Amino acid sequence: MKEKKIKVLVLFNEAHPEFYQKSQESTSKLDFTPYFEVDNLTPIEEYEIIVKKLKRVGFDAYALNLKDNIFSLLNLVKQNPPDVIFNLAEIYKEQPRLEMNLVGLYELLGIPYTGASALTLANCQSKFLTKKLLNYHGLKTAKFQLFDKIPEEFNLEIKFPVIVKPAYEDASVGIENESIVFNTNELRKRLEFVFSQFNQPALIEEFIEGREFNVSVMGDLRPRVLPISEIDFSRMPDHLHNIVSYQAKWDPHHESYHKTIPICPAEISKGLEDKLKHTAITAFKIMGTRDYARVDMRVTSDNEVYVLEVNPNPDLTEGAGFMRSAHAAGLSYSQALKKIVMLAYERGKRK
Questions:
Q1: How many CB atoms lie within 10 A of CB 96?
Q2: Per-residue pLDDT of the chain (351 residues; tens, 9 = 90+)
């Protein structure tokens, strides 16, 4: 008898897919030399590619765009219930903090899903709480303070320069070149920007000078570290700080996108590699991440390791971030996606 295929629902939430248009900008118009070829795929096309890749490795894969309508999922589950939800929904009703609520619904429906649990998503979305948890367990993060208003006088417990971040955003949202400030006047202006644009507290951290590493971890009960990637800032011009800003991650027509160059596997000593791996696995477990995650770190000139972020459910675009490390580990894009699905599927069977 023919074996039944595992049904995988690739679930995402793009409320206005009609807004996505192919960029017509040409790299020939840029006032710098691009390092990467500008990818012209829309997010919708990226999801379609994931479905095709999953089909190629033997799954019965199909997609659903929620379009901010949770009842579309409930109706689909009644008509064509999946064995696994490949969770790619990161926002609901334009509120990133509702991401955890979507995952809570999968749990109520009893459907295994890929990636982090609702509790983990909630904890990791709070940069303040993440740092508290990591510090409690002995991992270093940059010294920090939280502000929910602008004080009449700044009694800072940390030294300039500092970097100012929205406290509850991810994917580097709100982190720009102007986020690094060197005095109280600049700090006041940046706090005003965060409060007005994001309507949430601001986290300020001492800016850690040093090398930056992305350490991807795959697994559930027995997580393993994939080949480590370093961000090479050597081509960064003087007018841009050595940070991976929102523009560096997501805007292929911004200079920083082409001057933050990943090197994977990173060229590092065995001692530093072991230290980064240990830190990544420890952070992975402390925050309760699973299946796939990325831990971003800075290493000072005296080899002190500082955790910048713990990223559950990081971007799975082929050739970027997590998938770059998976490829360096010998996994094709399809194989890596399959492993993520099977981790969720096997977890569901254990329950």
A1: 17
A2: 567 899 999 999 998 887 776 555 555 577 777 766 666 788 899 999 999 999 999 999 999 999 999 999 999 999 999 999 999 999 999 888 899 999 999 999 999 999 999 999 999 999 999 999 999 999 999 999 999 999 988 889 899 999 999 999 888 899 999 999 999 999 999 999 999 999 999 999 999 999 999 999 999 999 999 999 999 999 999 999 999 999 999 888 899 999 999 999 999 999 999 999 999 999 999 999 999 999 999 999 999 999 999 999 999 999 889 999 999 999 999 999 999 999 999 999 997
Q: Which has the closest alpha carbon to 134: 285, 322, 274?
A: 285
DSSP assignments along 232-264, one per residue:
E-TT--TTS-SS--HHHHH-TTSHHHHHSEEES
Structure tokens at 121: 């998503």
Is 341 domain-assigned? no
Q: What is the dihedral of CA 250, 9, 94, 207, to 10 degrees?
A: -40
> Does some domain include residue 220?
no
- Distance from C-alpha of 167 to C-alpha of 177, rounded to nearest angstrom: 17
Q: How many other C-beta atoms are found inside a 10 Å radius of the C-beta of residue 20?
A: 13
Cα distance between residue 112 and residue 120, in whole Å: 16
The domain that holds 67 is classified in CATH as 3.40.50.20
- The last residue of a domain, from among 114, 134, 152: 114
The helix, strand and coil proportions of the chain, stated in percent and rounded to the nearest 5, come to 40, 20, 40
As given in the structure block, the two tokens for residue 173 are 């949202």
**Neighbouring C-beta atoms of residue 93, cutoff 10 Å:** 10
Q: What angle do CA 249, 250, 253 make, to 5 degrees?
A: 110
User: b or e along 198-220 (b: 16 or more beta carbons within 10 Å of the residue's beta carbon)?
Assistant: beebbbbbbbbebbbbbbbbbbb
Instruction: Report the amino acid identity of residue 80.
Output: N
Q: Which of 158, 177, 207 is the last residue of a domain?
A: 207
The span from the CA of 342 to the CA of 2, in Å, is: 20
- Total domains in the fold of the chain: 2
